[in-house]
Amino acid sequence: MSQPLVRWLSLRGYGLVTSALFRATTPPEIMRRRFERWGATSRATMRRRHPSLVFGDHSVGPLAIESVCAVERPTCAVLYLHGGAFVMGSPSCYRSRTARLSHRCDAEVFVPDYRLAPEHPFPAALDDALAAWQFLESHRPETALFVAGDSAGGGLALSLSIWLRDLGRPLPAGAVLMSPWTDLSRAPNGAPRRDLWLSRQHLERWARYYVGGADATAPLVSPALADLSRLPPLLVLAGEDELLADGAARLVERAREAGTEATLLLGEGMQHDWLLTLPWLDESRRAWTVVADFVERKRKSSRPRD
Fold first, then answer.
1. Pairing of the two strands 144-150 and 107-112
2. Domain parsing of the chain, residue ranges
3. Choosing from 90, 96, 151, 159, which is the catalytic residue?
4. Class of the CATH-defined domain 3-300
5. pLDDT of residue 302
6. Distance separating alpha carbons of residues 168 and 286, to the nearest angstrom
7. Catalytic residue among 242, 283, 284, 302, which?
8. Between the CA of residue 59 and those of 56, 111, 154, 183, 254, what are the distances in Å?
9. pLDDT reading at 2 higher than 90
């Protein structure tokens, strides 16, 4: 089968599945069950596919953190904040994705099972992200540390970076933001006819679940609106046809204006989270190469943490 046909079928199949399972009006508890049934992979299944995988269980109080390592001697560690619109997702849903991240970036990856909205609105997820980061600092004190995330987790990774800066804490060596959702104060207007799944209605409803009674324009709620100076280097990836693409481009532009190193990779003709959901496409393989190169360069240039 030709690559153009594989690409077309993969993108349309992705759109059909996501739009059917995760409608804007689908209640959070139903979306969670569907996400688990659709994406969860047991450790035993992962080990049968990849015998060298090593999993670990960690905790900070009630917060559970799963570690995934696909390489014998990792050269860095990544705190990965999963996506799911702040209302769904878990480490088990992301095992194949975090194993790929570990393999590609020669990294040990830590995935916190952060609290979800609407039961736990802002700042619960961010509090858990900070607790997980502080654990990682103490658990891997001599290792270059990165933060990464996709979709809502990409926005959360940026919020964490801003909070660490404001607290005067050592910053990650770099942040990898995949299809990040970084402005919850308003739904974007970009590419509504090209996005095969996300709509303004999705983002408006999900934002209400997460924001709760907070100010949607607050810097740690909508980090795209924050002061973006003095942040770690940012690598931002977005699908050219996804609703969040314009926001990703504006984020990179504002970060550069503030003096922060920021790089944008737009996947031509791609959809939300394409490098995670459609890893067999040539566009995804190229994107993973960019991610791995970014992590390697920033690892080599990182300074020891205080």
1. unpaired
2. 3-300
3. 151
4. alpha beta
5. 85
6. 35
7. 242
8. 10, 11, 22, 30, 36
9. no
Q: What is the pLDDT of residue 191?
A: 56
- Residue 162 makes CB contacts below 8 A (sequence gap 6+) with 219, 220, 223, 226, 227, 228, 231
Which entry of 139, 272, 283, 284 is annotated as an active-site residue? 272
User: Annotated catalytic, 261?
Assistant: no
- Cα(80)–Cα(74) distance, rounded to whole angstroms? 15
Residue 191 backbone class (left: φ over 0; alpha: ψ -120 to 50; beta: rest): left
Sheet containing 234-239: order of strands: 54-60, 63-69, 107-112, 76-81, 144-150, 175-178, 234-239, 262-267
Q: Cβ distance 38 to 21 under 8 Å?
A: yes
Task: Check if 120 is active-site.
Answer: no
CB–CB of 69/102 below 8 Å? yes
Q: If 0-12 CB within 10 Å is exposed, 13-18 middle and 19+ buried, where does residue 168 land?
A: exposed
272 is catalytic: yes
DSSP 192-213: TTT-SS--HHHHHHHHHHHHTT
**Does the predicted TM-score (pTM) go above 0.90?**
yes
Nearest by Cα to 249 from 167, 173, 190? 190
